[in-house]
């Protein structure tokens, strides 16, 4: 049984689409431990809508917060505190895809971050999207994961930027799983195509 943690170099870089692709490729279960905002159509709902296979199970968030902000701030608005011991990995015999919130160092409370949710047994997929500063953010993210001795892969998202992608590959030495292009739309068929493309590299 494999467990994949999907993180990004920032917010809005394509983690949810990548999570759907990996979930479909492995026919894995999906779990987003902390959802902040968009409860009417959460990331779990979005992934579920993009999955074709009948095997995947979609597990409940440990925390579903009302405001689209950093989890620590959103939790404060809701009058609660996020505690790590309340975030319990769902029990399943299937592969599991876990989607983080924002980047590695997004705070959950005054002392813990998303990084603290990543267990040594997880394979981590970093979603990197080109923008001014993205090389720095990608290298910082990968280096932090390396220091923890984790198994890492990178998926690029958005319009291709060859010089950026080349230097990230050279400087990190991390396997590149593939890239998700700037598609006109994402539906089940598009997700299946990427799932087939990435399957052997996961």
From TrEMBL:
User: What's in the keyword line of the UniProt record?
Assistant: ATP-binding, Biotin biosynthesis, Cytoplasm, Ligase, Magnesium, Metal-binding, Nucleotide-binding
The entry describes its oligomerization and partners as: Homodimer.
Active-site residues annotated for this sequence: 32
Supply the HAMAP family for this chain.
Answer: BioD
Per its Swiss-Prot or TrEMBL entry, what cofactor is needed? Mg(2+)
Annotated EC: 6.3.3.3
Q: What is this protein called?
A: ATP-dependent dethiobiotin synthetase BioD
Q: Single GO molecular-function term?
A: dethiobiotin synthase activity
Subcellular location(s): the record lists: Cytoplasm
Function, as annotated, reads: Catalyzes a mechanistically unusual reaction, the ATP-dependent insertion of CO2 between the N7 and N8 nitrogen atoms of 7,8-diaminopelargonic acid (DAPA, also called 7,8-diammoniononanoate) to form a ureido ring.
Q: Does the keyword ATP-binding apply?
A: yes
| Chief place where the protein resides | cytoplasm
Q: Which family is this protein grouped under?
A: Belongs to the dethiobiotin synthetase family.
Taxonomic superkingdom: Bacteria
